[in-house]
Amino acid sequence: MILIESHDGDDHLAPVRSELESRGHEVVVLDTARYPVETAIAISYDDAGAQPDLRLRLGGTVHDLNACTAAWWRRAQAFTLHPELTDAEARTFAYNEAAEGLEGLRALLKVSWINDPTRDARAAHKPYQLREARRAGLTTPRTLMTNDPEAARGFLEGQGGRPTVYKSFLALEGAWRETRVLRDDEHDRLDLVQVAPVIFQEYVDGDVDLRVTVVGDVVHAAKIHSARTAYNTDYRMELATVPMEPYELPEKVRRGVIRLMRRLGLVYGAIDFRVRPDGEHVFFEINPSGQWLFIEERTGLPITRTFVDALASADRGAPHPRSAPSGCPDCEQNVPRAPRAREAEPVV
């Protein structure tokens, strides 16, 4: 059995689920937006042994999650509480209790995760992933993340007049912001960073961006001709029309990508690079649950098949290769708790 945490609005769910079921795999989809009112969990201990009985009720069907061998952490949604709960304190209590129950269930599952929720959550933090990218041998831009206006001014002075971009930590549907080049007339507005931290980075010159999608040891790279758009700072502004094609990643960069995945403890990741005119590949970020269909549809790269192969292999009882960190003393320490729920969908 394969458990998928997602929802019907996720366009990546349908092709993966369809292909898995066509191969004979049982798939159970947990939409956390239906929890705890419409969806129920049961964790029961008796005198028989250490492993509890794990049950998940979806509508009128009860699933034995001890039979689950693989799980895909894809798009967990915010819980939906009972409408009769109107008191703010009561709603907070109920939400936290619901989270504790579900997180406890996840922790008890004997499955191969793509990705493990706790490692996924940690790897999604941009300050952390930049450090790990450098430790993996990848080139990263000069960067400052701050809500201190003086630190921001100092960073810009250190740039010596060279172009600087600024961007948000998260790209959410309800509050999406493209990456922007800082204009001269915006220097007088740096006090506004006190409202919330901002990411400042040196502008990386180049005509080509890369989207590198990794599943285990399989690396699919796509070349994105961002210079052929009206806004080459952020190709997402013209995502539907920007030209793309398959790309052969240099072996040195490919090895760095695999090392980064090991350090982060991820099986799946979507990584963004830009290629400088001299050929240097500059790492921007990794999205542990990033989209891939827009790449696959335009380039023909078999990413869905690779992803399904990984889940199918885990469901047959063989843990997916490199699903946990290897040889990384930092990766097993200080792993955070699983996220309670994602309030909105990350974009790309």
Automatic annotation (TrEMBL):
BP GO terms, sorted: SOS response
Entry GO CC: cytoplasm
Keywords associated with the record: ATP-binding, Ligase, Nucleotide-binding
Protease as UniProt keyword: no
GO molecular function: ATP binding; metal ion binding; ribosomal S6-glutamic acid ligase activity
Keyword flag Manganese: no
PROSITE patterns listed in its UniProt record: ATP_GRASP (PS50975)
ATP-grasp domain: residues covered: 130-312
Disordered: region residues: 314-348
InterPro entries the UniProt entry points to: ATP-grasp, ATP-grasp_RimK-type, MvdD-like_ATPgrasp
PANTHER family given in the database record: BETA-CITRYLGLUTAMATE SYNTHASE B-RELATED, RIBOSOMAL PROTEIN S6 MODIFICATION PROTEIN
Protein's UniProt name: Glutathione synthase/RimK-type ligase-like ATP-grasp enzyme
